[in-house]
Amino acid sequence: MTGPRRRRFLPPQHGAWAILIVPYLAGLLAAGWSWPDLPLLIAWLSGYLLSYYLLQALKTGRWQRSRDQLGLYGAIAIPAGALVVIARPEVLRIAPGYAVLLAVNVGYSWRRRERDLMNNAASIVQSCLIIFVVAAVQHVEFATVGTAFALCLLYFFGTVLYVKTMIRERGNVAFQRWSAGYHLLALIAAGLLDPWSLSLFAWLLTRSVLLPGQTLTPKQVGLVEIGNCVILSTCIALH
Q1: Domain range list for the chain
Q2: What share of the chain in percent tops pLDDT 70?
Q3: CA atoms of 85 and 93, how far apart (whole Å)
């Protein structure tokens, strides 16, 4: 796929890939693996792409412009998702949660306010729910993966706050204080959930205090978060 064509079919949301892949990986680390996890991954990634272009079309009203993307990703996501449901119908237990959260995304996109913090939070919860989907595929009780879910939720919501202080809310002292306060609470919660994660969340609190205001590019911010995602995955594997 050439560069211009790739840009047509892949959204410029680089951070979204970590929010998609890390919780899925966390689910595998916490619950195990079996063959339906492969079509689940295909459905998960293509479903995100389908929803992205669906929400873009809803926001802009330019359905024709998104026709090719909707057709391609729908043709991939629907059969892959159907295969997972046929193999493991218990995954439908999580479907109502996704429906509610998708409705939140639709509402914010309709009002062209998709960057609001509450919409970000809804998207993060959606991504972290894949951990329970993986657990359902493995016939594992949800309580078994509860710590993995909570750690991912704590990390990614904090990362959204932190990244906003580095880019869109750069220089907003009040927002930086909110971010630092959240990271302090996240450190306490993580310590109660999993001692392995204490060092990571202590670092996350430190970076939320010291890095805003520093001259880091968005790429540099992203590279730091890739390292944090690796550490988070390691903590979940060790739990």
Answers
A1: 3-238
A2: 97
A3: 11
Residue of 81, 58, 86 whose CA lies nearest to 70: 58
Write the CB contacts of 118 (distance below 8 Å, at least 6 apart in sequence).
Answer: 104, 108
What's the token pair of residue 113? 């306010």
Query: pTM, whole model, 2 decimals?
Result: 0.93
Among 24-28, 33-37, 51-55, the minimum mean pLDDT is found in: 51-55
Nearest to 69, CA basis, from 44, 51, 81? 51
> Which tens digit of pLDDT belongs to each residue from 120-157?
999 999 999 999 999 999 999 999 999 999 999 999 99
Residues 6+ apart with CB under 8 A from 71: none
Distance CA 36, CA 145 (A): 18
Please answer whether residues 186 and 158 qualify as being in contact, where contact means their C-beta atoms are separated by less than 8 angstroms. Answer: yes
Tens-digit pLDDT profile for residues 60-82 = 888 888 889 999 999 999 999 99
CA distances from 75 to 69, 83, 123, 163, 211 (A): 10, 13, 23, 34, 43
CA distance 62 to 7: 17
Number of other CB atoms surrounding residue 163 within 10 Å: 18
